[in-house]
Model the fold of this input.
Amino acid sequence: MITLHGFASSNYYNLVKHVLLYKNLPFRENLIYSGSEELLAISPVGKVPAITTAEGFSLSESSVICDFIEETYPTTSLYPENTSERAVVRQIMKIAELYFELPCRRFIPYVFSGTDIPKSLKTEVRQVLARGITALNRLCQFSPWIAGEQFTMADIYVYYVNTIVNTFGASQLEWDVQAEIPGMKPWHDSISQLDITQQVETDRQANMPEFIEKVKAQIEAASPK
Ligand SMILES: N[C@@H](CCC(=O)N[C@@H](CS)C(=O)NCC(=O)O)C(=O)O
Done:
């Protein structure tokens, strides 16, 4: 059985969990926070999520884990058979990671520590997001799924990326990023209503208070005495 290591407030953790649930695979969850020695033993950069298989194989990096799960358990496939179509699914995921998720994550240290975000950083993030918007407008189909008729890994991946972009776009940039991509909002809403998404969301909300306490404790420990 697979063990999924991490915490339910993490969107990266949740996208892997969604894939496991979608494929109806048995797995157990090991609640663990970033930076611990236990996590470093299975995740080389000490980030969540990570998985461990029954054979003792460990793996980190959410998109790599997703592909490992797909290749190990190919039934209920989350990729098209056609290689070009598969590549486009991965292209959408990569662009969402590089041009949506990662720039927005640059705000996180400021938000958690309650410090003002420099104007220059906001400008930089806006520019990167704008490139992501242009690219995703060219690639996404929403007919009805993000890459066409088949529900794919990109639907799961971009949905969880969007949870970060929606939060920081609205709170830090006063920008409804999704609105810039026609078709994305109804697509996002339909994924949010899936049973699996709701189950993942319930677990996220349950973990949130503990996660916030952990972050506060880390900030406290790091602040000069
Ligand atoms: N590229 C990694 C990123 C994972 C990541 O950033 N996880 C966050 C939690 S959402 C984390 O562990 N952060 C702790 C840290 O940055 O030290 C992936 O796709 O899995």
Residues 83-192 form a domain with the Glutathione S-transferase Yfyf (Class Pi); Chain A, domain 2 fold (CATH 1.20.1050.10). Residues 10, 12, 34-35, 46-49, 61-63 surround glutathione (CB under 6 Å). Residues 195-222 form the longest helix (28 residues). The chain has two domains: 2-76, 83-192.
